[in-house]
């Protein structure tokens, strides 16, 4: 069964990000701001995006978008997430065909995108990686607990 955001998932995300979502139809919007840094971002989770039948059969129809002052990031076909109180962040994953993409949203209105990371890098010895690859591999390695076929 394809992943779909439940109401409980949205509540968990809201708790970690410490902000109540504005829910309208199938869209939940979380508006984050950090006074110390002046950063502001809006996170939108759209459940049940309409996809052509041929695509809908092979891809989850969840859409995670981040709107910031000078950027727009979007993760299509979200296949899972991890919400961490300790880190104060939510990591959204889209995994398909041996590739993982991740969108990290921080409680302090920060965000990062890691795209097209080969799944083999998620379970490798990080000390063997070049510095440029370590950050994405460590961040996305958390997805191993969601997907049993890694490693």
Q: End-to-end distance, in Å?
A: 22 Å
Q: Give a count of the beta strands, DSSP E runs of length 2 or more.
A: 9
Question: How are the strands ordered across the major sheet?
Answer: 1-2-3-4-5
Structural class category: alpha+beta
User: Which geometry do the CA atoms define?
Assistant: globular
Number of domains: 1
Helix proportion = 10-25%
How many helices does DSSP assign?
3
Average per-residue pLDDT, rounded, comes to 82
Q: What are the key terms here?
A:
single chain, five-stranded antiparallel beta sheet, four-stranded antiparallel beta sheet, 9 strands, 40% strand, globular
Structural description of this entry:
- The protein is α+β, with helices and mostly antiparallel strands.
- The chain has one domain (7-145).
- 17% of the residues lie in helices and 40% in strands.
- It is built from 3 helices and 9 strands; from the N terminus they run H-E-E-E-H-E-E-E-E-E-E-H.
- The chain has helices at 7-17, 53-56, 131-140, and strands spanning 22-24, 27-34, 39-46, 63-68, 71-76, 80-84, 89-96, 99-106, 111-118.
- A 5-stranded antiparallel sheet has the order 1-2-3-4-5, with helices on one face. Strands 6-7-8-9 form a 4-stranded antiparallel sheet, with helices on both faces.
- A hairpin with a 4-residue loop joins strand 8 (99-106) and strand 9 (111-118).
- The longest helix has 11 residues, at 7-17.
- The radius of gyration is 15 Å and the shape is globular.
- The model has no long low-confidence stretch (mean pLDDT 82).
């Amino acid at each position: 069964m394809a992943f779909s955001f439940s109401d409980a998932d949205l509540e968990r995300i809201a708790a970690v990000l410490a902000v109540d979502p504005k829910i309208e139809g199938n869209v939940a919007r979380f508006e984050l701001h950090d006074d110390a840094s002046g950063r502001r971002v809006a996170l939108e989770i759209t459940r049940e995006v309409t996809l052509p039948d041929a695509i809908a059969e092979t891809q989850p129809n969840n859409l995670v978008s981040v709107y910031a002052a000078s950027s727009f990031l979007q993760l299509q076909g979200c296949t899972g997430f991890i919400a961490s109180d300790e880190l104060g962040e939510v990591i959204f994953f889209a995994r398909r065909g041996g590739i993982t993409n991740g969108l990290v949203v921080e409680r302090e209105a920060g965000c990062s995108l890691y795209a097209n990371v080969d799944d083999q890098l998620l379970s490798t010895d990080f000390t063997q990686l070049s510095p440029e690859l370590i950050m994405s591999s460590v961040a996305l390695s958390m997805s191993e607990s969601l997907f049993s076929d890694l490693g």
